[in-house]
């Protein structure tokens, strides 16, 4: 039997990172962040690698978080996934001893070191995060705290030097010491905020960090240094860092610790010929990351069982064609469409050219469920759609896709939309509008129509029959044949 | 001081005609209507004058009116303007005596004749209308009953013969007898339903009846007989009919009696050169109709003061260029754009090519207010927009336009959106989607996102700050430069 | 074996009517033509039935025919099909006796009556036509003279009255007398110009005369009077008129006499389901007209063998769906696409929305060839394409389609492009640009690129390998998915 | 007086590089070229920096040059600018002594060293170039030989290492030794081919080499290493290399030696506010390069007078806005439009998004003429337009722009279109179609319509009145508002 309602304890909410939303007022600068340096780098701007938009002109969550929370509350949202910025909490390097031990892989993470670290934290930033998170809690919104959403403090990462091929200790994930340092930082967050969250995530989309930073370098992600080898090294350090962080955090909390991952759904150009490619792509893109964490991987020194839950970010699919033993991802589909037109499959595309493909979310969820049987959250899903033309359809049809997965047995515990309010979309700057809510030049929030649609869904915990028609591909107008 | 709230007694609601919405079930046929005959005429269909869509496949308000009313109630609507169909109430001709007297212009409309007429009414239809209107009343929705919204009974009108140039008594508004017959019918409605309505309208958009029926005959309106002379004759008969109906109705009711009119806002192509054209066009399009009714016109035998209120229907503007003493209306603007693209002014167009021009509504209201100082309702305003892409903007920006007029002093008492539910758009059939609500193959209603937006406005009696951003021209996407 | 060259005696040329091209200078007015009256009629203009463009602002062939001919000569063209205007040659009615006899169906067409008629002809117009045609001859361009290309003299046709349903003798093809009058006029042309032409055509697209004049009345063709019955009557009179004209003309000339017909190629929406519809549509559209002329039809009094050749006009296809015993032609294909976009089949459309479908020309030719084995000319083929974007492809791919038919055995003797120079496209006025050549405000001719392409083909009598790539559907650009 | 004809000795022709056109057959590989290595680099392909198209699948000029030349001859072309590939002539390093001397800046270029070098040249390649150029000469087509069109031999350049920040001697233009080596190579070409050419160019668009290679690295040009400092160093070495090459070449030949440069025309967003930006941009983009060569520059050791002529490559403009003391180039104009739509100025864009802006060519020519009074050739001008929709307009309107400059006094001696045949457009691969001529899978050439237009112009040495209409912006269709 198909159920129309979501499970009673299912949570509708939103996802948000620190760097993309916090700044916007003079007193809220996060200039000790490597991403801050990166997007201000003149050569990066001149070359078009980054937009030239400045994150300090953002929506200003750091100051006006209450208006964000109030809007979410009015929208009936019950969960938020928010990131904390390492560079805010520790704008200066960890003490030398810790740095040295981490370098030697001899750091022990325990209460002593955590209370030691507490002396070095930026107290104002720490208290401000706690204030923000308390405000969330007081509104009966459950919080998932995410430790890492791409920026690192400048004392760990100098992406401009890496981009230039200059040797530097501050090479971010390329320097092995980060494994222990990250675990320490994550543990410290739990140590200070254990009561504020219902769950923790170590990282958001770590696969994008090495994918865009070292392979798809036109994306303009730091360090834009093209190297499969470095990508691979970063991937390994990330796996180790999560594992160590997991173990350390679980010593302090019983709350579930997970990771949030960027997913696409692979479709074969020709189902008869290209199916092999799908299995291979899934293995490369997903299982090669999750199997070590869940099943263990000797070469990485990971003994498995390092995840209590999986966070699924999903935006669109990827079309594949088999190519020898491997595969090629085809232009004109998925993430590589042209803006505001249709793909070869007559699917509409978003303001940044991403294809409308809601069924992929169900299938991605089922892929994970069938392989791991772990609880899941949809931790990101949304569309760059300034006019809010497609978002009502996008929202309903992707949520309907989640419901179908639940009705097939998948344990999905929440759907967190990306994003509540328009924010800084990394190298693309402010032009992509992912928010259910926009903001004006005074940083007043205004609702897009889909915010009302989401409110209907969140409040009723179902897609009510009146909204069912939005579970479809948006009609293609004359100009969008 | 600009007020953000609408006056406390301001009503948000919707407008609806009989013929366009009632049918949809087997037991609800209205086949004694000349429009029914017209859209079934094989030659009309073959020629493309009419769509070939059949009104008997409509949304079925006659049967499922409660679901319409319930939706409106949920949407916070407080007023409805609904039409009654002469052909349903009197599928057979009025008694001979009445017909003969009307022909001689010697009919007296009084209680005797009304109670005589009562014997000939279709009791089932009458009671069903009363049942429908009571349901509206019971939901605390104010009702304006409109007597005439284009169809006539076949015993009065045979448009196919008129189209062919065949002489016939059944020539609708071309036969003078209709003046008294219409007044009688209208009075009868008041006689039977006085308590159900808060106001009455004699006619909806009479100017379209002769404009499309006798001038713009590509519109496919009956009788599609091209003749300025006939257009003029119909106009005069309509003016006389309204006047006589007004006098007759006011003998029975104190409630305000008005008329509903199709308006456009005239803009000059070159403000320096073409301004004369505007005054002339306004005079031709509006004042030549309203002045006789309000100020009187000896040649028509109308002594003025025949309106208690004015109903303003507005969809888009008309661009004019001076041409000699007259003017030319320009293609590529207003009603004559191409579907789903932009006009030369970079304004977006709707699914049927109408231009987005909200400021025109304010100006049209002010035109009327400055000239007549009569109370007004916006009795129609809406957009054909299946995807609901522009409607949220259309809705908010037109309602904001009304508010600006109110803040300038105009006495506007309500805004009635066209329409609540998708319906039969005359010769165009079902393809234009004007509804806040659509319906599926089981005639279940589904809400478009803008229905939620309208609910916000109607419920709060203002355009709340969160929605202000929708008071703008919809963003033009890549494809819609 | 497939031949790449056209037969040695194959002619490339162009087609042109009188009314559409002749006017353009003050001394060249053709105001005794019913089409002249029709397009000047204020009600027609006001209603949008006609464009408001005035044919007297045309390209001015009457005066500057030499520049037309010179361009054609430079282009390597060897054949022209040109129309003469009855209203120019006989602006006043034929003598009473002739009118009376024609009414009684008792007119005898012989040398006596032709020499009698010679007294009434407008000598200036006659001599001017002869002058024009001699100039063509002197340039070694073969001429086909066409007698009737839609306009009639006003003394035979008052379409405005017919449109109004007013009884009139001047009802054009509805008045039976036209059968003999037309035969007389056609014979007179042969009588005076036999030596100037290589072949004669009685009529151009007679099927459009009744199809658009009495059925598809939104096309704005005179008399825009909707009546299947009248359409049928006109069709019969046209068939009789051609037959009588054929017999009369052949008494004077041995040169081949044919008729030029408007064709479309019918394609089934679903080849498995809709094939019956194709046969029926072909029968209705083509065989019901040609069978009587070729095989005879007792009820019409036609004994067959009335055609020496068939002129095929082809622009695009028509998509059909079976509907009961009949069929429906589908919107969004063929003639009913939207301008400058693509159809559902991803075929591009022209400036007036016609679909690119070159293969249809081959199939239409083969249809005729298989049924009648008569010689054929392609007498019209072209595209409204102001930018000349698709015309190079259109030209080559349609000419290639003709070549395929020839290689299959069809006897096609020439290809005449519509048109050499932009002209007056009837109710649409000047906006559709069908010319290989345009003209500026001084009526100077300028070549579009496809004129150079046509020159290559005409000069070499083949589609040279260098041009083969143009035998394809034009590439769909980003905006034209 | 405005002349309509071009000067009698004006040459219409085409431009072509080696790397982009030569390959296409197995025996024609140029795999010792750094660009060959670059576009085959797996990381480059995977990252999307390069297209993945392989130059060895090109049009194959090396083998079928005669079909190119024959087409040009048929088109009436009288001049060609062709590049030679260093890597073909010297696939192996120059002898050690030469390398060492160049490193020490102590190389003397004289007949001895040239005859010494002759021992090391690839004789087959040398003879083949001579054979090709003789074929050009025999067809009465004047030849300009260009020495450098971006690729370097791999023994001089390892762009993948440079991209990675790895120190290498093979750093191309970053290694100072190239100054003397380039001068030697250029002199050697003159030494061997002096009689085959009417003029020589040292380099094609050297400004793109450092602009795209070190600044706009998303373009995917080698080495895609972002560094203003390196860009500046390369610029200086290029200036020195040209100067030395000029002096060395002029010792061997009297024929004019020039340089070919990539130009854009700068337009101010707001002519009242942004004019300062134009002067500054012109200085940065043009005068900072040409002034040292022509007027001399002590710091570079250049004493001026190093150019006999200037080659102007022009495709579109650049829109600027003043920004502080500098300027910003605006997106949505010039080179940064979206494909196949219009810019904010309603100018159409090409298949790769470049804006149609013909007037810029005239102005750029006049800029040079007014400053330097040197003879000029337009050495590149063309459009990526697979459908050949805009190219007829582009061709005529840019050639008309050249004519206007000539009529104002500029000494422009020829117009060389880019390109004759579609070729390999560097990192973009084969998808941009710049050819007047395309080719099929058998490398047969097919003409686009504009080839016929160009033939008209080249043959008549003027834009004949019949083609004047093409001197305009292409009409914007429905879809291209």
TrEMBL record, chains A, B, C, D:
Active-site residue list: 380
One MF annotation (Gene Ontology) recorded for this entry: beta-glucosidase activity
One BP annotation, GO: carbohydrate metabolic process
Pfam families from the UniProt entry: Glyco_hydro_1 (PF00232)
This protein's UniProt keywords: Glycosidase, Hydrolase
Protein's name in the database: Beta-glycosidase
Family note: Belongs to the glycosyl hydrolase 1 family.
């Amino acid at each position: 039997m198909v159920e129309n309602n979501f499970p009673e304890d299912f949570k509708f909410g939103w996802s948000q990172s620190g760097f993309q939303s916090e700044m916007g007022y003079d007193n809220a600068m996060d200039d000790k962040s490597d991403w801050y340096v990166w997007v201000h780098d003149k050569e990066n701007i001149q070359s078009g690698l980054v937009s030239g938009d400045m994150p300090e002109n953002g929506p200003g969550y750091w100051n006006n978080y209450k208006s964000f929370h109030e809007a979410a509350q009015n929208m009936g949202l019950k969960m938020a996934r928010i990131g904390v910025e390492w560079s805010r909490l520790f704008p200066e390097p960890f003490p030398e001893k810790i740095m040295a031990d981490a370098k030697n892989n001899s750091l022990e993470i325990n209460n002593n070191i955590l209370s030691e670290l507490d002396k070095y934290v930026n107290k104002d930033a720490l208290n401000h995060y706690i204030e923000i998170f308390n405000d969330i809690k007081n509104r009966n919104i459950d919080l998932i705290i995410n430790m890492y959403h791409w920026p690192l403090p400048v004392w760990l990462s100098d992406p401009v030097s890496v981009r230039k091929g200059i040797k530097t200790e501050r090479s971010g994930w390329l320097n092995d010491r980060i494994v222990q340092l990250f675990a320490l930082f994550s543990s410290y967050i739990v140590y200070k905020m254990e009561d504020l969250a219902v769950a923790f995530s170590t990282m958001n989309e770590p696969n994008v960090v090495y994918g865009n930073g070292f392979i798809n370098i036109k994306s303009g992600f730091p360090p834009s240094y093209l190297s499969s080898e470095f990508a691979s090294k970063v991937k390994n350090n990330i796996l180790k860092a999560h594992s160590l962080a997991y173990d350390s955090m679980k010593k302090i909390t019983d709350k579930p610790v997970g990771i949030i991952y960027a997913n696409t759904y692979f479709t074969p150009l020709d189902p008869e010929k290209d199916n092999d490619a799908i299995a291979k792509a899934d293995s490369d893109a997903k299982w090669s990351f999750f199997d070590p964490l869940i099943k263990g991987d000797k070469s990485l020194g990971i003994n498995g069982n390092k995840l209590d839950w999986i966070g699924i970010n999903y935006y669109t699919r990827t079309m594949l064609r088999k190519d020898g033993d491997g595969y090629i991802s085809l232009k004109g589909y998925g993430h590589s469409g042209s803006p505001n037109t249709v793909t070869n499959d007559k699917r509409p595309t978003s303001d940044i050219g991403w294809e409308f493909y809601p069924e992929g979310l169900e299938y991605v969820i089922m892929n994970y469920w069938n392989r791991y049987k772990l609880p899941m959250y949809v931790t990101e899903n949304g569309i760059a759609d300034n006019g809010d033309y497609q978002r009502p359809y996008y929202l309903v049809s992707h949520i309907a896709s989640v419901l179908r997965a639940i009705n097939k047995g998948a344990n999905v515990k929440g759907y967190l939309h990306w994003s509540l309010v328009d924010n800084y979309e990394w190298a693309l700057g402010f032009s992509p509008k992912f928010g259910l809510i926009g903001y004006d030049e005074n940083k007043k929030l205004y609702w897009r129509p889909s915010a009302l649609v989401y409110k209907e869904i969140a409040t009723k915990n179902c897609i009510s029959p009146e909204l069912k028609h939005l579970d479809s591909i948006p009609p293609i107008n004359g100009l969008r044949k």
